[in-house]
Each structure stands twice: as structure tokens, then as C-alpha cells.
Amino acid sequence: QVQLSESGGGLVQAGGSLRLSCVASGRSFSSYPMGWFRQGPGKERAFVAAVTWSGKTTFYADSVKGRFTISRDNAKNTVFLQMNSLKPEDTAVYFCAARVGAVLSRLQSEYNYWGQGTQVTVSS
User: Fold this and answer.
1) What is the pLDDT at residue 10?
2) What does the pLDDT average to over 36-64?
3) CA atoms of 112 and 98, how far apart (whole Å)
4) What is the pLDDT confidence band of residue 29, given thresholds at 50, 70 and 90?
5) Over the Cα atoms of the chain, what is R_g?
């Protein structure tokens, strides 16, 4: 079993930055690719970013590429999402997810564990 807990959300002005953190408890965290998803008002949950267990390979949704950075610190059982140049359209509940597998995925259905979500609100 893996439990994930997000933090770092809040209210920020457009152009500002936030760093989300996701702390994992349980075994084999270092073996799990990790991802961030988000769900905005009236929208489906969407892929944001993912990182391999080693932290050496990442990929991003086009909407956040160049602005967001995903990283992880396996010694601290933590994955991060650094969000810069935030836009109002980034407003969403952000979810951390872990996948039991060897490769990265953009698909929600391929992730096995989920956090409770943290609200990010970007004002114009």
C-alpha cells in the first residue's frame, strides 16, 4: 500500500509561482514512476507531468511545458511540482499519483495510487 499526501497549494496572482509537494508513505516508492494530474472547474482530470523513479526522465503536457518542472527526492519519499509563470487557467485541484510499473504514462487509468488533491487558485 502507498499513501500520498499533497501540499503547497494556495492562492497566487498570475505570473507567480508555487511548489507542490507530495509525500509518499509505504514501500517501493523509489520504484514508482510518479505523476501530477489536475482537474479544473467543469473539466476532466488531465495529465500534467510525470517523472521516472530515477528522476532522470520527465515529460509534460503541452499546456505546462516550459513553465512547470517535476522532480523527486527518493530519500525523502517526495515528488515536487514547481509551477512558474502561473496563469488563471492553471486553477485546478492538483493530484499526485504513483504508478506500479516500469515506464512513464500520461493515462490516469495506469496510475494505482492517488493523493487527496490540493487546490491551486491563480487570480488574474
Assistant:
1) 98
2) 94
3) 6
4) low
5) 13
**pLDDT attached to residue 50:** 96
* Cα 11 from Cα 108, distance rounded (Å): 26
Partner residues linked to 72 by β-bridges? 79
- Using CA atoms, how far apart are residues 46 and 89, in angstroms rounded to an integer? 13
Q: What is the pLDDT of residue 124?
A: 93
pLDDT at residue 89, as a whole number: 97
Rounded Cα distance between 50 and 35, Å, is: 4
**Cα 67 from chain centre:** 13
Tell me the C-alpha distance between 101 and 92, whole Å: 27
Amino acid at 74: N
Phi-psi region of 67 (alpha: psi -120 to 50; beta: other; left: phi over 0): alpha
CA distances from 38 to 10, 27, 74, 115 (A): 14, 25, 23, 11
